[in-house]
Amino acid sequence: xxxxxxxxxxxxxxxxxxxxxxxxxxxxxxxxxxxxxxxxxxxxxxxxxxxxxxxxxxxxxxxxxxxxxxxxxxxxxxxxxxxxxxxxxxxxxxxxxxxxxxxxxxxxxxxxxxxxxxxxxxxxxxxxxxxxxxxxxxxxxxxxxxxxxxxxxxxxxxxxxxxxxxxxxxxxxxxxxxxxxxxxxxxxxxxxxxxxxxxxxxxxxxxxxxxxxx
Length: 214
Fold this sequence. Notes:
CATH superfamily: Regulatory factor, effector binding domain
Number of domains: 1
CATH topology: Multidrug-efflux Transporter 1 Regulator Bmrr, Chain A
Number of strands: 9
Shape: globular
């Protein structure tokens, strides 16, 4: 059986240094995705819709993993990738410190050999096992190409992310780059720790912003 580990192959995108800001070009990858928004008076950590979307994504992603592993021809085993979130607002200026009006896309990357037919079968299996839900009804399988980005590893609680984003923006300015968040781009977080279990001071989150030449 073939073993595939995208975490190792894509280490430059999923394990950046926390000590510096890096410029990377992110190619096109396949994702399972769900869109939603933070409910009024909620935060991402207390949003029922966000929690339901995560459950749907992990259910489908693990079903795809086991389907791939049990294929009669060319079975492939691989670890499920980290949860990722794209964050933005529809009107006004995006402010990392004010999550009350955020919209989101949560997603999990899938290996290149995963097909639309495999995805549709996985959704059907999850619905049969767990029952339908708004997130399972909205989940989609599509490609996403982020292009030129600035990124770094944020270590610590989510509440301290604004300071790391400020470092990223200072780096962009010094290097003749414009932050595209709010200009068609989205604030991107990749969650490498479980906030329910990890010490908040040790949480690791990749922060990534699309950029362009100023």
